[in-house]
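Onboarding guide, step 5: your first structure request.
Type a short instruction followed by the sequence, for example:

Predict the 3D structure of this protein.
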Amino acid sequence: MEAALFWSTIPNIVFNAVLCFTALTLNGATIYALRKTPSVPKPLKALLLSLAVSDLGVGILVHPLFIIRLALESRLQADLFTSFPTFGMVYAFVTCQFACTSFFGVLSLSLDRFLAIHLHLRYQELVTYQRVVTAVISVWVLGGLIPLIWLIRLQIAYVLFAIILVSCFVVSGVLNSMIYATVRRHAHQIHSLQVQPTIQENAPNVTNASTLRNSTFMTIHVYVLFLVCYLPCLAEWFISLHSDLAILKAVYQYTITLLFLNSSLNPLIYCWKLRGVRQTIMNTLLNAISSQN
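The system replies with C-alpha cells like these:
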C-alpha cells in the first residue's frame, strides 16, 4: 500500500503545481476585471471579490503548502503532523481558514441573490454596499476563528465544523432551489414582455431582469460546483474518523486536490455568466496583444 500511496502522491503534486498557477492567474484576472467593470452592482461585486481573494489565497498559500506536505510525507513515510507539528498546524490553520471563508462566502452570495430576486425595489434600500462590506469582514473573521478553535480544542472544532458544513450546504441548497424556481418564472415574464408591441417601453425592465437572471444563475453554478468539489473530501473525512483503511490515505490526496480545483474553476463561471467581466478581460487581453505588436 505504501507503493500505491507513493505513486498517488506524484500525480497529485503535479496537479497541484498546475492548479497553483491557474488559481493565481485566473483569480488575479478576475479581481482586476471585477474592479474595472461598472455594470456589476457594488454589493454583488464585494461578495465576488471576497470569494476571488479567497481563491487567490488558495493559489498563493494552500497549494504550495499541500505540495510541501505531500513531498515530505512521501519522503519520510510518516504523518506530517507527527514529524513537523509546527508546519502541520500552519497547514491546518491556512487550509481551514480558506475553506471556512469559502463556505460562508457561497452562503452569503446565495443569500444576496435570493434577496435581490424577492425584495425587488427594497433590495437596494436594505442591502447596501456598507452592509455587504461589513458582512464580508465578518465572513473572514469567522473563517479565522474556527481554525483557532481547531488548534486549541480539536474535538469541539470537529463538532462546530460539522455543524457549519451541514448548515451552509442545506441553507445554500434551499436558497438556490428557491432562486432557480423564481428565475424560471421571471424568464417566462421576460419572454411575454419581449413579444409585446411596447418592447421599447419595457426594454429597461427586460435588460435589468436579464442581468439579474445571469447573476442568479451564476450563483447556482457556483453552489453546484462547490458541492461537486467539496463533498467527496468531506465524505472521505467523515469515513476516516471511523475507519483506518490504508486506501483512504490515497483517496484523501485526490479529494483534497479536487477541493482545491474549485478555486481555479470559480473564475471561469464568473466570466461565463457575467458579460461585463468577460468583456473587460477580453479587452485587456486585446490591448496587451496590441501593445506587444
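Each response can be followed by summary notes, for example: Confidence is low (pLDDT under 50) at residues 197-204.
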